Amino acid sequence: MNEVFLSFLLGLIQGLTEFLPISSSAHLLFPTLLFGTDDLGLAFDIAVHAGTLVAVVYFFRSEIKLMIKSLISRNNAFNDSRKLAYLLIIATLPIVIAGLFGTDFIESNRNSISSIAYMNLLFAGFLLFAYKYSSSSKSLIELTIAGAICIGIFQVFALFPGASRSGTAITAALLIGLNLKDSSKFAFLLAIPTIFGALVFLIGDIVLYETQINIISLVIGFLTSCVVAFLTIKYFLIFVEKIGMYPFVIYRVLLGVLLLVLI
Known about the structure:
By secondary structure, this protein is mostly helical.
């Protein structure tokens, strides 16, 4: 497959699946499974992750500005933003700690198709249970420290390829009673420190291992993932209350079964 087209395809997949509860790692397998393509390397991984990071930061730029102001100001008008900033920090800590000590495990299972398939099926079940039986009565402002810790701990499962980072965060938020739209919003905001942390690890790896860099592929991957991720966040938040989680649960089950058939 032409490398330019592959860069576009992988950027499209990363941008679309990073914020939907459907597992980006599972979808990034398909070009290899269907066309026998090679991985484009660590530098490309950095580019597409940077694209999704820029997209989510830009989308939530107003909220981020308020949170930054709240952390450097004692003005009580920023109390809600200050609380949200602290809760995001707290919810990020478990995956940072787990990532530091679980690097070998993550790498050993990164490309295991069977593991990714089973994780899709398992976490489709968790998402279905959370969506069906959650009270969905709380707003984001009602999120507590205990709730943020719960979301953070559950997000650790995203280190299992196929579990889906946004999927685990949304599932946990639903389980503690947040409404679906605020569950999604918190999961997307939580992506900012999480993706940034992943970029730090990837940059560390590229210093040690990367030898060749294709600038054209990086630019295409970055721009594609950035634009697609922005549109995904925008329209997911608009329609999530209308479409619910059932389509994503069904899709993940079908995806898991398809991967098991293909191996």
